[in-house]
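In the current project phase, we have settled on a layout for protein records. One protein thus recorded is set out beneath this paragraph:
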Amino acid sequence: MSSSDLYGELRPRAFAIAYQMLGSVSEAEDVVQEAFLRMHQTLRRDERITSPRAYIATLVTRLAIDQLRSARVRRERYVGEWLPEPLVTDPSPAEHAETADSLSLAFLVLLESLSPRQRAAFLLREVFDYPYAEVAEIIGTDVDSTRHLVARARTHVQERRPRYYASRRQREELAQRFFAAAEQGDLRALEALLAQDAALHGDGGGKVPALARPINGRDRVARTLLAGMSALPRLGVRIQVTEVNGQPGAMAFDSQDRLVAVIGLGIADGQIQTIHSIVNPDKLRHFDRVGDLGALVRAGRRPRRSRQPLQGDPS
């Protein structure tokens, strides 16, 4: 098999592991690139790789563990709430149906509470279905320690993990109604779609006005959403409903069709449980054309310059 064929076959799984480990598209791309570079160098030295699949999974996981350890220091200094970089996923392939829950923004945020090794062991075993022995070899420990890591992570995650019981069609219909109610300023319709304990999260990274901390409760979330969404038409921003990280969501574009925000919804039991809004432009750079919602907001707040009467002007 040629190097390009090998890359094409192994890259999707390599990226999936790196992204779910790091919650960052850009960092995941860097890790995958480094892993394939190292494999290429190994092959050029005529060293035998028994299983390229296992070799790449090992490299990607270990690089991601190291990256996550350093990233955590940076995230402690992050302005406001840190959210993962969003993915706009293709709703058609069958494989997404199996991984939709593990791709959700809410789930990736939950994984942040695990240690890097716990996160790696849990994802490899519970999401990617690697045998315990292979997980142990990948993260460099024994099987008993791996089972312990996975068990502790599983207990932590199961207590808090969001579950999405609605069908894809039901979720899509609910999302359409949600964004329509928000754009129309219909508070009652919006409240009817939200769970009693709904939570609203925002990530502006200190570059775009965003929530300093999560908003909780149906009434507060609905009113906060309406205040934000009602300003979008005035700023020339339009909403396009799509799929974000395996769940319903939307992309917001400015008047020049540049992406300025991505919104992901978490839906369970026929209601919206969570809303995650990412407006930090640095977290949208992996999309083609990115704008700056902060600049639009600042321009919208700028007072119009009034005409000053000239000296001697009777006005």
Remarks:
- The first helix runs from residue 3 to 22.
- Residues 92-98, 306-315 have pLDDT under 50 and may be disordered.
- The domain at 168-296 is CATH 3.10.450.50 (Nuclear Transport Factor 2; Chain: A,).
